[in-house]
Give the backbone structure.
Amino acid sequence: MSNLILLGTQWGDEGKGKIVDWLTQHFDIVARYQGGNNAGHTVIIDDKKHVLHLIPSGILRPGRKCVIGNGVVIDPEALFTEIDELAEAGVEVDGRLIISERAHIILPYHRGKELGSEMRRGDENIGTTSRGIGPCYEDKMARSGIRVVDCVSPDVLAQKVRDNLSVVNELLACLYEYPPFDADEIIETYLSYGERLRPYVGDTSLYLNQAIESGKKILIEGAQGTHLDIDHGTYPFVTSSNATAGGVCSGLGIGPTQIDAVLGVAKAYTTRVGSGPFPSELNNDLGEQLRSEGNEFGATTGRPRRCGSLDAVVLRYSARVNACDSLVLTKLDVLDSLESIPICTAYQIGNEHRDEMPAETWLLDQVTPVIEEMPGWQTPTSSIKDWANLPQACRDYVKRVSELVSCEVGVLSVGAERRAIITVPGTRFGDRLASTRD
Ligand code: GDP
Ligand code: IMO
Ligand code: MG
């Protein structure tokens, strides 16, 4: 297991940060390949909570290097806030973080554009994190983006900001009656950002490829989740990047033959923040219970997360799209008190039975989930360390999920804390990671 991808299989917030933190002991470098500070990855170490938005969660493990790849979009202000907060918590970032010179930069007008377009969509809004992520990726694809390398080159930066604002100000005024952005002000601010960015900037593709050649191990940290992926998610209610395994090569500048395995993180139930279809959503007491027991409030925006039962259709699709070798099932402890646990195994749409995700997003709103009830275990699991000591009903739930998804479940998480992890014996990943006790 040299180079491993770890990614979300649902709509984000699966607990990726916690699992990355646990796994970093086996890796030298942790790299982000997409997304930006729309992510919120929570890591709890010895009762201390850290929420990472842009910097890979590996930064919390002393000695590990962290890479922000070219596929990530960077809001420099958010990055500096994060670096400062980490320093305050005693985590040294300098000398450990390398940022791609090819990554794109979020500018204030990206947030302005997003605000306008979300307002214009009205009831059909995406419910974005308002971080300017979508418009920044739009500029990248329109070939008018500003990259880190531009931000550290004063003349280039000034010219690009002026060129862009000559269009953006007119557009925003026309569409949303938005007041104009001041070019000089943005240039001055971003030049100072460039100065602070400079020591971190490098050719991260070269760095990673050289590291691989010299035998270093890389953990690749996904943000968001498969069903928020721009190509494979519930479009248009998605984010603007490729959160799936496919995004790794383009987002880091490494080749597919350098990736050894893919680990999918799945919550033991399902949550979603923002708008969009959610076939297994529970708008009832059980949904409320999951929200309060799982503390399901966004790590980035604080918004309450919508909650529902585990959706095997969603997970099957993710296991296939990402070619997952194994799944990590998180937040299993949140189900501890339930008498009976519903699993959505398929979709009924009108008279049709569907085992696969339809591409027609609007059909997902018409789904009646096909539900299988599993008996609950009604026993606390958070302090259990071994598979053999888990209640039988809990083991049955895990096995049933694995069966329905046709993918092994190798690791379980039964609490937010670093050590609340159980490996599943007899699985490829569980056995490989069984000695990991930290
Ligand atoms: P990420 O975006 O995928 O990293 O997930 P978030 O950090 O946004 O949300 C996951 C939340 O669940 C965080 O508050 C974690 O501290 C918490 N968490 C992670 N794993 C577990 C677990 O196994 N049990 C419980 N109860 N909480 C967990
Ligand atoms: P992590 O990495 C959950 C959601 C937003 C919105 C949609 C588009 O913590 O799992 P965007 O701001 O990206 O344009 O918003 O995507 N979203 C997330 N939901 N977890 C995330 O990240 C998310 N990042 C974006 O709520 O529905
Ligand atoms: Mg999150």
